[in-house]
Amino acid sequence: MMLLNRRSFLLGAAGLPLVTSGLSAYAVGVEPVMMLDVTSYALTPPGWPANLPLKIAVLADIHACEPWMTADHVRHICSVTNSLKPDLIVLLGDYNGGHNFVTGPVMPDQWGEALATLRAPLGLYGILGNHDVWHGALPNLRGDHGDSVRAALRAAHVNVLDNQAVRVSKDGQTFWLLGLADQLAHRVGRHDFHGADDLPGTLRQVTDDAPAILLAHEPYIFPRVPQRISLTLSGHTHGGQVNLPIVGSPLARRQSRFVYGHVVENERHLIISGGLGTSLFPVRFMRPPEIVQITLGGPARAPGVAIAS
What we know:
Layout: H1 6-29, H2 31-34, E1 37-43, E2 54-59, E3 65-66, H3 71-83, E4 88-91, E5 104-105, H4 108-115, E6 124-126, H5 130-134, H6 147-155, E7 158-160, E8 164-170, E9 173-179, E10 186-187, E11 193-194, H7 199-203, E12 212-215, E13 231-234, E14 261-265, E15 268-272, E16 290-296, E17 305-308
Parallel strand pairs: 1-16, 2-4, 4-6, 6-7, 9-12, 12-13, 13-15
Antiparallel strand pairs: 1-17, 2-16, 3-5, 8-9, 10-11, 14-15
Helix pairs in contact: 3-4, 4-6
């Protein structure tokens, strides 16, 4: 066994501030703004026909703000998304900034103009997240219950789903796309919320046995999602945002099994995006911003393969 002498210990201790400073600089200045992954999943969940191939691009938790997530950066994300040539693009909420460590807001019309560059033959569909209804473009700005966010999405040709189900067709086959209102929409205490989501009412709009996909900003509803839904797509958690060795994610505060990736419970499938922006603090560590690409139909392959972009 090699013994650590006093000189080696002092040299190591002296270097700790440099290591800490370097990791902090990376977590603030590199990973959140200079990295972008495309994370791909391929699966055929129960209820989804193998002969109905569908390629979905998922954008979640943009959290637009200066200088971390500018309108130009959103436009770049859209360009990468378009290059994947998806059949369908879904946006999972939280377009407003999630913290006040900023040089200024990016207003809904600004990020909306960037999102208007998205293209998919089966269309764009989106839901709202908690930050979209809690406040304005930044947490210290007064909100309008998400009206400005809805208007910006519609101007960008995004079909906004507030507890709504729509029937979509591809090559003569149909499937349902369901979108829930936010599960944390109304604050009723310091740490308690009442949701605007209506899962039973949304499910009642499904009028045939065609396969169905559910969009839900927070993944916490997943235990209540019936097997009638082939796949649930969520964001909100940012995949933990900060992931430390051994410790895990100190920011993932509730239902830790619903933080990131492909979750299967009782033959029900959930995919949680790591998202694009940041909340609480402008940091990311070991969870780069990501566009999620999902291929449904055909033989299933191992999920969760990250591809640097």
